[in-house]
């Protein structure tokens, strides 16, 4: 698909879209042709499927006053207990260069939860298990997924470009602050083992770093 043709430029350039790649080409003597995004020329291989449950009645399993939070709201992973936020805990650990399908489930009663997954935008595959339930305006890339009461949203997400530590949380302030948030982490360029980043411990005297206190078995 031809996007534009910069015929008026001193060295005419052609910019075209080929699948996921953007190609910019010009006279070899003036502008070397290159492809942006050529390394990501299609969906990455599906590596894992994870389910997250959002609701109240969460357990506070840790009590570090710096890293853990107290509140009725929490997130369960793969059918495990709903847990209060603790940013020393790693709840999911996708491999770099792969794609996963994450299913978000609302079991929190009458609340909608606008779930924000940091890092790359994903695509909604289904609502309540069916692609036909996804309205046209939700078929683009998104990073916040509105989760209706008792509903599910199934999302395809790719983990590219950066490894490191990321968050997933409800964007209702009364939920994220009490304590509907979790930490997940992309491993080190596809290493078969997670080498997690140290947890930053912010205090008035400055930030120190500690190893994670907990990595859920269901993270992998
Ligand atoms: Cu919420």
Structural commentary:
There is one protein chain. With 220 residues, the chain is mainly β. It folds into two domains: 2-40, no CATH class; 46-219, Cupredoxins -  blue copper proteins (Immunoglobulin-like). It has one helix at 173-176, and strands spanning 2-6, 13-18, 21-25, 34-36, 46-56, 73-77, 89-92, 98-106, 113-117, 123-127, 144-147, 152-159, 164-170, 181-186, 199-203, 206-210, 214-215. The chain has a six-stranded mixed sheet. A five-stranded mixed sheet has the order 6-5-8-12-10, with no helix packed on it. The protein has a four-stranded antiparallel sheet with strand order 1-2-3-4, with no helix packed on it.
A few lines on this structure:
The chain is 2% helix and 43% strand. With 220 residues, it is mostly beta strands. The model is unreliable at 1-13 and 26-41 (pLDDT under 50).
Order of helices and strands: EEEEEEEEEEEEEHEEEE
Per CATH, the class of the largest domain reads: Mainly Beta
> What's the main sheet like?
6 strands, mixed
Number of helices: 1
**Global shape:** globular
Mean pLDDT: 83
Report the radius of gyration as a whole number of Å: 21 Å
What ligand species are in this complex? copper (II) ion
Tell me how many strands there are: 17
